[in-house]
Design goal:
Blueprint: E1 4-10, E2 16-22, E3 27-31, E4 36-46, E5 49-54, H1 56-65, E6 69-74, H2 81-92, E7 99-102, E8 107-111, H3 115-123, E9 127-129, E10 132-138, E11 152-160, H4 169-176, E12 182-185, H5 187-190, E13 197-205, E14 213-216, E15 219-222, E16 224-226, H6 246-261
Antiparallel strand pairs: 1-2, 2-3, 3-4, 4-5, 6-8, 6-10, 7-8, 9-10, 11-13, 11-16, 12-13, 14-15
Amino acid sequence: MLSTSSASFANGNGEDISIVEDSNTKKVRFKDTDTALEDDVKKSIVDGVPSIDFSDRVYQILEKEMSTSIILKILGRNIGISTLQNKLYGIWRPSKPFQLMNIENGYFLAKFQNSIDYDKVLSQGPWIIFDYYLTVQPWSIDFNSNLPYPNLIQTWIRFPRLPSHLYKRQILMEIGSLIGKITKLDINTDSRARGRYARMVVFVNLGRPLISKILINGNPQRIEYENLPVVCFKCGRYSHTDEACSLTISSIGVVENEVSSG
């Protein structure tokens, strides 16, 4: 007789998805009212170490559940979760309450009840709390809380002299996605009021070189970055770089004094 154990996960619609484990084969399947897929979870022993592997379908369920979640971090300052939540309600003014969770290493996870509040937080800003820059980025399964600060940051970009026949919302969204995740498209772009360039807010990865041009049907298209946020990752303040930070200058002065006195 087979011995089984069961548990349940909630999918993105708030519905429970049961899992049934066969203790003999150590194979687990997810099942709901429509489907029953084998091998969604596999448990084994690898070189004496217990191991578990999830199928792509499981990750799709998890990603759907987290689709309105945002990773937050205040650069250069530690803050309690209650204080942060009160400040966020004041500056974001969400239409519905949101959940805030303290992760680790100064990161927080905000989970919204609807896409309206989620999109608002991502597309507006910059957000400043106690004169410190609050980074916001969409949650992704690749998020790494061990990083001292997020690699992703929002900025306006534009496409000067973009051919006029490409000024369609869906076309512009596809073009912009080559640069990064788009959070806002200039409303004037749709009516061609801006004339010679399209404009949008995207997330760029500061750990990689900025993309200066792309190819559209083989033709080069230049990318311009408008007012790339100037953030000091030394102290967390907005409007100056690490090199111009007073903490950096002070530390350099201390080193120079030690060298000269030595």
